[in-house]
Amino acid sequence: MKNAVSLFVFAFFLLFAPWYASAQGAFVIGVAPHTSARVILEMYQPLRLYLSRSLNMPVEVVTAPDFDEFARRALAQKYDLAVTTGHQARLLQNDAKYLPQLTYQADFKAVAIVPQNSRVTKAADLKGQKVLGLSAASLVTLWGEHWLAQNHLDIPVKYVSASDSVAQLLVAGEAAAGFTSLANFQKLRPELQGQLRIIAESAPLAGRVYLLNQRWATREKAINAALWGFAETAEGKRYFDSNKLGGYRRLHSGELEGMDRYAAEVRRLLKKAEK
Q: So which residues are the signal peptide here (predicted)?
């Protein structure tokens, strides 16, 4: 019970207090909320420990309640290293001068999922139905909204906190379809994943990108080397294998530029929310 309470308290700080680690002089890794805070903490623990040893400084992992807030915090320079999908990476590169470092080898795809026993087999079957996504600034949600529009469907998307929440709500009959990443769909518990199926998937998109805050530019080579060093460790290889990420790779020429359209939508959404 004590351990559960401790994890809850830590997850609270992970989610709502990115300033806490910074105030304590830690190197702050901000991870976009592609899943729950608890899962993010577990996923990035090996990297956190390795970087702390390699850089000889305290390192903390934080996230945000949703993709919109993550973008706001990143633009406000709250993170030393940001890990987020390609469209927000492009936004941070252009608007906050973050320095792109690397991404994952595995393709990143967005998918539309429905309950296994649903009669929905194509977009047209969703007319008049409820659809779920992550926050408005999430790449999978933006792709999903484009997919609906391309199929001449004017359906508002209801936003929820994480991909596993999308899956659970679909199984509970709270919506007809939902948008998530293929990787997060594949990471669902087998008994939950088995109650869902994919009806559409995107072409490969720029997936999670690691970006270094410009204030660390003088140590960029050392930090980049530490990231690649982690990839060669047993812990790093287990991390890639368990999350089906393949490993790190360098960004292709023009890869982030291909996200300009989606980055512009995030910029527009954030400005609209400020009014």
A: 1-23
